[in-house]
Structures are given as C-alpha cells and as structure tokens.
Model the fold of this input.
Amino acid sequence: MQRSPVEQASQPISFETTPDRYRHWRLEVEGGTARLIWDVREDRPLRPGYVLKLNSYDLGVDIELADAVQRLRFEHPEVGAVAIVSGKERVFSAGANIHMLASSSHSFKVNFCKFTNETRLAIEDACAASGQRYLAACNGVTAGGGYELALACDEIVLVDDGSSAVSLPEVPLLGVLPGTGGLTRLSDKRRVRRDHADIFCTTAEGVKGQRALDWRLVDAIAPRSRFDGLVEDRVAQLAAGAPGKDGPGVPLPPLGSKSGENELAYTLLHVGIDRRARTATFRLQGPKGKPPADTGALRREGSGTWMLRLFRELDDAICRLRFNEEEIGVWLFRTEGDPDLVAAHDAALSRLAPSDWFAREVLLFAGRVLRRLDVTARTLFALIEPGSCFAGCLLEISLACDRAYALDDPGRPVGLRLSPLNFGALPMGHGPTRLQTRFLHRPEALEVLRKRTGAGEPPRFDAKAAVEAGLLTIAADEIDYEDEVRVAIEERSSLSPDALTGMEASLRFPGAESMESKIFGRLSAWQNWIFQRPNAVGEHGALKCYGRPERPAFDWRRT
Amino acid sequence: MQRSPVEQASQPISFETTPDRYRHWRLEVEGGTARLIWDVREDRPLRPGYVLKLNSYDLGVDIELADAVQRLRFEHPEVGAVAIVSGKERVFSAGANIHMLASSSHSFKVNFCKFTNETRLAIEDACAASGQRYLAACNGVTAGGGYELALACDEIVLVDDGSSAVSLPEVPLLGVLPGTGGLTRLSDKRRVRRDHADIFCTTAEGVKGQRALDWRLVDAIAPRSRFDGLVEDRVAQLAAGAPGKDGPGVPLPPLGSKSGENELAYTLLHVGIDRRARTATFRLQGPKGKPPADTGALRREGSGTWMLRLFRELDDAICRLRFNEEEIGVWLFRTEGDPDLVAAHDAALSRLAPSDWFAREVLLFAGRVLRRLDVTARTLFALIEPGSCFAGCLLEISLACDRAYALDDPGRPVGLRLSPLNFGALPMGHGPTRLQTRFLHRPEALEVLRKRTGAGEPPRFDAKAAVEAGLLTIAADEIDYEDEVRVAIEERSSLSPDALTGMEASLRFPGAESMESKIFGRLSAWQNWIFQRPNAVGEHGALKCYGRPERPAFDWRRT
Done:
C-alpha cells in the first residue's frame, strides 16, 4: 500500500496516484463531458507546515490534477469537454500556496513551477491535439496560479457579481512573477494587449466583469444566477464539437515500480544512481516481441503495449529524479534490445494513429515525455553501445541529449536507425522536430533522410556512419570509449550546476520559438532570477513579508 | 573639455567620444575598407581597480567600439567592409575583464552585458541593413567576449598555428554564461550543432584549427604566414560586394549636452529627474520647420536634421540613465510640437530612403534607438497632453511604452497620427512592428490603418478616438487626468524593481521571436539568474575564486 502525501512528508515524492486516492480533486464523468472539481483539503499539504486555504495548491494538488488530465485522455476517450469547477463557494482558487513557496528551497520552487506548467501544457495538448476541450468555471476569486490554470483552458467563464475578479497579484503582492506561464499565456495565447496586461498584472485586486471580458482576460461572464447554466451550455457546446472516439478507454494501472536507496526499478526501465559520481543511468528496454498488428491487438495490449509502458515509466522516473535527486546532475541513457523491433513498433503506431485514438494518444504522450526531458535541468548524455536499440522513438532520446557517445566496434555494430516517428510525430516544445534542430545548418541532408524513411528504406547507421551523418557526437573504439566517456562525465560533474542549467536551456532550442519554449526559456529564467533576489527572498523581501504587518523594503536599483 | 574615462572613475559615465580621443581602438579607413584595431591600454580602465590585460575589455572599451561602429555608418559610407584586428601579437582578445566583473555591482554587470550586446547587434545591423560587412581577424587567443565579438561579425578568420583557439570558457572557468549573446549566436546565427556547441562551451581551452572550421565556429583558417593575406583578401571580397553609397559622409559632432544634478539638457530633449518620486521625465521637441525637400537639402542639414539629432540625444540619454541613475525606475515621455510636422519629416525620410543612404541610415538609427528603449529595464509611460506631437516616429515611443495616458480635452485635442514609418521601417527586435504586436488580437483593424496611411490619408485621433482604436491605454478628462497619472506613477514606483523588470521583459515582446529577442529575453535572464547565485558570486563561487589558488565549492543541487 502506498503512503498518502501527508505520510510521505519527509519521504521521496511520488507522482503516482489514482482517482480513488485523490485528496483534493474529484473527477466526475457523465457521457461526453466531465467535471473536474477541486476542493482542496486545507489539512492535507504535501509537507507539514502550511495550510491549503481557499483552494490554494501545492505540488500534491497538482500531481492529482496531472493524473486526472492524463486519465481523461486514456481512460475516458468519450469525454469531449471538461469543466474545471470549484468545490468551494465563491472561490475558484487563491493560487499556489504562498507559505509553501516561502518555506521551500530555491530548487524545489523552480521544479514546482516547471511541473505545474507541464500539467497546464498537458491540458493545452488535450485541447489542441485530442479535441478534449477544457473550460474554467471561475465562480469567485481566481487569483495567481488559479487564474494561470484558467489560462491553460480553452475557455474561461467568470461569475459577474460585482466582486469576483481574475487576478495575477504576484508582482504587486509578492514581488515575484506568476510562476506558471501566466504572463506568456496572457500575451501570446490570449493576445491581451500589453498595456492592458501591464495594468492587470500590477493590480493586486485584479479585473472583474465587463472589463475582464473587454480586455480578453475571460471569454464570458454571467451573473451568479445564470452562471451554472452558462457553464453547462458552454461545456455542452465544446463537447458537441469534439471528434468521436470509438471503444472503451484504456485503464492506466499503477506502474508497480520498486525503489531502493540507489535505484528505481520498473518493468522496462531501470534507473541506477551513483551518488559519488552524481550520475543516474537510465536503462531502457526495447520491445521483446512484434508490435500489435491491428487496432484490436493494440487494445488487447492496452496499457501494457511497449511504447506506452516504457514512456509512462520514463515520465515517472524523470519527475522523481527531478524532485528527489537534485544533486544527481548527469543522466546517462542506455538502451537494450532490437532496433528493428523498435522501428516495427513505431511503424505500427504510425500506421494505426490516423484512425485509432488510442494509438494517437500513445504517440502524443511519448511526445510529452520527450518534451519533459528536453526541459529537464540535468545534463543528458546518450551512451550507445553494442546491443542497444536507439531507433525511432528511442533515437529521439539520444537526440534529446546534450551529447551522444557511441562505442564503435565493427564486429558488434550499434545499429541506429530512423523511423517515421523521427519526422514529425514527436516535436520539441518550440515547434520543430529534434532532427530539424539538429540539421538546422543543412536541411537538405535531412530531407534526404526523410525521403528514404518515407519510402520504407529507413537509413541504418553504425557508429561511424552515424557520426558522419551528424546523428551522434563521438564514436570511439573499444580502446578509447570507456576513457572518453568517463572523462566527459567527470568533467561535466565538476562544473557549476547553475551555469550548466543556463547553458543547456540556451543550446537545446535553436531557431524557432513557441509559447511553450518562451515560458520555459524566457519567463522561467526571469522568475528564477527574481526568486533569488533579496527584493523577493531577503529578510525584508516581498515574499518574506507577505502576511506580516511590515512592508517590504526594496533595493530600488533597476538592472 | 570632457574628462577622460579614468578621470571619470567616480563620475557619471559618459557615452560620447570621438576617434581622436579613443584610448583602446584605432580606426583606419582606406578607400572602401576600414581596419578597426583594438589595442587595449592596460592602464586605462574605466574605473580604477583592474588592469585590462590581453585586450580584455570593460565598458570604456566598448563605448569606443560602439562609437566607431556608428561613425562608420554615417561618416564613412564608402566603407564596404571592416576588419576588426588586434594590435597585440597572438592575442585577439581575452574577453570581458574578469576582475572588473567580479568587482561590479549586479546591476552594473547586467547593464554592461546589455550595452555590449547592443553594440554587437549594431555591427550585425550594419552588415544586414547597410551592406557594411565586418570580419574578425582572430590572430591568436580569442576567448569569451572576444569570441562573442567575432560571432557578431559576418566572417571569422582564425590563425591556424597549432595553439590559437576560439573559446567560450565562461561555464568551465567562471561558472557563468557568456554574457554577450554568445550561446544564442552559436546556435541560431552560426547554427553550430548543439552537441558540438555543448562540448565547445564546456572546454576551457576552446577549439582550434580544422575542428573550429568543421564545427562552423569560424569561416576560414590560415597558417600565420598566410593569415594577413587571407584577411586582406576576404575583406576586399566583402567590400567588392558592398552597395555603392554616393557622396561624402555626414560628420557626427558632439551633442553638447549639459547635465545638472537632476537634469540632462540637450537641444531637442530635456530629461528632468525627480529623485523623491524616482522618475525621469523626457521632453522631446518636434521639428520646428519643414523637412528637407530633397537629398541636397537633407545633406545640408546633415547631423542637424531633426530626426537624427533627436534620436542621437535620446540614445545618449537612455545609456546615461541606465548606468548613472539606477534607482530612477519610471521614465515618463512627453512631446511638444506639431504632429503634422513630425509626419512631414517622416514622409520626407521615407521618400528619400530608397535612393539615399543617409536618409536610410537615419531611419535605421532611429530603429536601433527605439529597440534600445524596448529592452530598457525601466517602466515606460507616455503622457500625451495638449501641444504634444505623438505622430509617426514619436508615436513609436508611445507604442514602446508600457502604458500611454492621454489628457482628453475636446478644446485642445492631442492630435495623434500615424505615418508610413509606423508600418515597417522601425521594427522591434523580435521582428514585428510595435503596431503589429499591439494589434496581435485584431490584425484586420491594423490592415485598415495601414491602407489609409499608405493611401496618403493617415488616420488622426483625438484622445478618445485613440483609446477606441487601441493606440492608447487611458484617456481622462482634465478633472481626472492628473490624479490618474499621479496614482499610476506612485503605485508603479512602490513595486519590486526586479519583478517589474521580469514582467516588462515578458509582456513587451508578444508573439514572434528572433535571435535578438532570444538573447535579451532568454539568455540574459538566465545569465542574470546565474550572476546572482552563490555558485558564481558566493564566497566560494567560481567567479570569486577565479585567479585564486582554491577551487570553487558548488552547491550541487540542480534546479
């Protein structure tokens, strides 16, 4: 039996849960619509020391939300629209819990903001990619992170009662920025004019009623008497436009992982931690058998189908290592298996996806996990060795890495290969595929690879050929490989973790930008900076003074 | 007589200089090419306390470079290519001076990086917009900011002598990022593959010879015996492709400003500082007379032509206030004059620009100044009152502001109007015009304005109409205006300067991104964060330990 969040207070954080274990949310599905009701239990924070008043939230609340959003996609394909509604009267949410933030370490705060934003991106991905639309039913106070959750929805409905307002009070009240992408979603998603956004974000009490509508902060308003009816109508309308998805949902059972002091063991993934070297080694298993031949076979495999299982395990491991193993700065990725079988699974899902929602959801999920890897503040190295299966969707992991090293042994070639999934189904957060960003300087060479793969003759590479083709960083023979890798890891582990975080975030996303990459790259960087500054976290900083009688004392120098 | 940089040590920093007063650079013009020779004087730092060894640089060095780049465009239109060469043997540059950085305040460091990057953007603007191409002749050690300067050039030539390398050693040696856009220029401008960039940026000794060429870090290499010849050939070739520009250059005389304790007084601009309110009020004068009728008349006006003079004064004031008045957090913009005359000057320069390089340079310069304003970490409010002339290029200033307030007095309408310059000649750093970012949510309304302006019927607006059209934030009548503005300023001045900086940087650039905006928005934010972290600036941080025997002691937690 797993422990409840409260019992885990000083335990490693777990990211697995199920609706029957939710403390803070209820998921009600009825026909083509669902209600996701948040009714945060004040007395059930993830760690002791703060009270979750007024639907304010902490990581524990958001882990349940992320679980619900994920389950809606796999277990409730019939749901075309989801209303996020509050279980509290006249309060949608007061946002992220300030006392939790004020008492958290810098790295926890940063990772908390990253995770909550990933959850909101998952909502947007459900709207955009799966036609599962979300509506925020703002029945009262909708502040800070509460409004940021609303911003992640397709539609925002606000009660018009003369007092209920949406607000982002972080700048005026706390001296920090909204931490979950709010500013970028205002400007880029909702296209709120920047002077309106400027007033809105500096007005602690927020904006209500008609002005909220005029300024594009919400999509509809209604007096309290007609509020529930409006929400119902809008949700029904959103659901009516949803694409039909056949068949029952696919349940997502617990992963059943085992964790030891220095390892996380799943079925298809093993993560081993070397604390002295400050590294974690991910070993991912390729498929053992052939892919499902058709939709029926895929459904019979359900959540056990290789790609879904592997990426669920990888997703869980990423989250756990981010939060529970902050000092493990270098992640090494190894794979084991048959590259042709990986490519066969890729091909099967590619083939089924246009007509089968479940196949599509598996690919969309793999894309989200890979994007979570892309924005992970750890050094990522791929180690490509004989017996590995860096093909297709697993090659994406290598392409997501900062460097890839291969052991070049002509007698045991590593057998990298491409699959159709490398050419569009698994895009990075800023838009292009990982191959496109890698071939930015010679798109014509990529076009040749694409054509060959599309024609059913995917190019295969041994280590040397892969380096020549630009897919790997370094190939070394048996004599040099071990030393080369060891020195690279030791060097990396000796560098400033902060400088590496900034460098990796800058080099991983060349070229294009998107709202998503602007949030992670630009907004988060500003927020990280502000979170460190004495004006926020110093003895007289705004974040420290919040809730106390004294006013913050600022160093007025602008940078 | 103005003071030398050294004598100014504890004085406000001045940004005006002339080639005959350069300490660190020599500008040699010969026919269609120029040599910009940097030979930094060790004993002439901007402030006492550090020695500028090995062509390392400080703000004083960069102010001279910025001046030279600007004069090359206006005073030497015949120059088609510029070689940046070192006056020192086997050293191009060791980069920004570390001891200067380690002894500087956070806000100085951040503004130093911003200014140096703006200078590099000015080089890129000369290459892209004026066909004045730059080549970096890297005759030896080319490290950190030295290589970042090379990255700003169109071409990089490196001596191939078995030891000379280009490098970005900031991450491994100092625990910070390259501070002048180096990472983004690697990935986005030179399209260096990210794993190569990763190795390069973590290798203190850098990359030399053939590998530097293979990895796209440089464009050509040559042994020492053929290095000068190669540089000469390449510069001649770049110059041969330059567009011809008629007529002599236009000298840029000193601005002749007067500064008092609380003011900067120029001819067309007055800046008054209210230290208690922490505001600066910019008063910009519109033109007094008609615009030059033709190229001949424009040349006779030379540097005295209204738009050039005004924007030179504005540029100087922005730089001085950024560095010398860090606590003045709100900048207020007022204009005085005839909006129709502003529009007439805009129209004249628009008309002449396609055939006249000087007219074009004036517009390009106005664009650079406005972009400097866009990335200034101060709150910008426009105050639009009777007698003002917020038309065309001056309306851009209002559009660059975070908010615009207008006094709505039907008897004395404010007379805003558009000009052709609002529709493309003065783009923001991320690509679109200020009007395009403002009308992101209704581009069709902007299209109407564009058509009317293009047809010679530019729309005019009084305060109310301007608010309705979406050009202004708030119009208030005489009874309310003063209170409205006063309260807004007081409220703004009470907020955390850091939170405002992050908020403004996020809201000012909706939608598109460019290399320029990625540098200012993403890379700079990461750098600011890292600059604050104990791992860099703590007692045992890498920046503090540099040059000392002990190794830095890092907090290994990744965020």
